[in-house]
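Narrative of activities, Objective 1.

The group set out to show that a structural description can be obtained from nothing but a protein's sequence at a throughput compatible with the screening campaign. Below is one input-output pair from the validation batch, recorded exactly as produced.
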Amino acid sequence: MPEEGLLSQFKRFIVGKPIPSHLAHHERLSRVTGLAVLSSDPLSSVAYATEEILRVLILAGAGALSIASPIAFIIAAILAVVVFSYRQTIYAYPSGGGAYIVAKDNIGETSALVAAASLLIDYVLTVAVSIAAGVAAITSAFPQWHVNRVELTLAFVVVLMLGNLRGIRESGQIFAAPTYFFVVSILLLIAVGIWRVATGTVSPVTAVAPVASTGATLGLFLLLTAFSNGCTAMTGVEAVSNGVPAFKPPESKNAAATMLMMVVLAITMFLGITLLAHVYHIVPSEQETVVSQLARGVFGSRGFAYYAVQAGTMLILVLAANTAYADFPRLASILARDRYLPRQFMNQGDRLAFSNGIVGLSVLAAVLLIAFGGDTHALIPLYMIGVFVSFTLSQAGMVIHWRRLRGPGWRTSAFINGLGALVTGIVLLVVATTKTLEGAWIILLLIPLNVLFFRMTRKHYDGVAAQLSIKGWKSPGPRRNTVIVPIGGIYRSVVEALDYAKTLSPDVRAIYVNIDAASTEQVKKEWERWGEGVPLVVLESPYRSLMEPLLEYVGQVSGEHPEDYVTIVLPEFVPARWWHHLFHNQRALLIKGALLFKPNTVVTSVPFHLQH
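Output recorded for this entry:
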């Protein structure tokens, strides 16, 4: 086995040992790890969904905050409808029923591309919002770190990227414990809060730097805005449906069970936090999250239990981005397979992870976090458009799916998915109406731009395929090959290149560019001994350029017989150490680049390996 280079050793240390393809089935998820990897996004949304509702209602005064509870119940009911709709998708599409696949099979190409664009944008925003919210949990507990929130968000992006590059099963094992720690800590918070309500020991919480009321009227638009903000609790529920193939067999059964566990936990935590926030008179703050205030009120101080809740919240919010890391690369690989994204996104890395998709997602999320200063509330308005576009298209596609199959119970199935499509469609209209002026117009612009990019990519690949096709093509018959060997002097590497060139064609010519008369005469004399019968062509270069005379000569030879081949054989020595390259020019590389776009021209190198 060849000795690994320094770069390979570093890569193995960071990413881990390569996994052979035949072990791919061992990298599947159980229900326990599946809940952690694919459900951390909707579970984590409960940490900021209540706060987003309260931040809108407070504009109409503290008295309006009581309306948060009925809004939360409406959102919980919608979430239940959406989840039961997606459970049907899981069984109908065991190979992965993302909105793109469902829309492509049942509605059409344009709808599928809109769904794909929406999902990809949503996944990038999931990473950005989740990590920004996680860092907000840290800075609530440690206010002195608030000024470094952008740096903290970028650090977490790097950690998640490296964790996912190690493969889906290992990332699930890494991220399972924090997910369950968060769930237990929030359920404990709710349980203790309910106990305090039952025993009459509730003490209202005083907010630090509360969000000021603007005296706004509690009208329909404000209520709809609060509702659309709270719908962040539904983000990410499609991840399990998209990732069915990632589960251990039976895939659909395990995925459906995971989704059921997810919705029960999400609704319980969301309603618990919202109701307790009302009981404890929580007012949204510019410096402290609602969950932090609630934990402070329920546990009575910033003791161990408080910091446990904050730690769990921070971890789940950061790791909620892992849902996007599970689905973005998979969707990108499907789009690449269908020739709507560059083929590089199809490639799996050493650890059977879609490495290019993981890195691409990390870069896009990092750019977004820098652009918005790591501010959760600035990112939220962008978040939900893509989510509900994909929800609606997926459920509408499933209605068509059931109508087309007309199997047993198809009407019931179509009704459930139709209800899901109707509900999510209404929410989409509400979100689009209330969030456009807050920045959602960016998403409404990006979705069609992404669709345009998909179509341009597909057009390119279709054009390449048409040009490479042998259908209707006729061979021009035998061709001659003129071999040109550029030389810079008489060296062992040159002699070996000449030996190789003579195996290709009887027409071999050596080319030397004259930029110094004395050196040229010396080469001519030595050529008589070492040229091995190959004619030496000396090209004049009055402006001392090595490239221009060579390129002109190649063009001249090609022009004499346009249908024939011209092969340039480059003598090229390979330094013994990588850093030795710094002492030598890269003329061979420049020649290759210059000749790459010339038709019927072949460039090849004959390497001569230096020993020291």
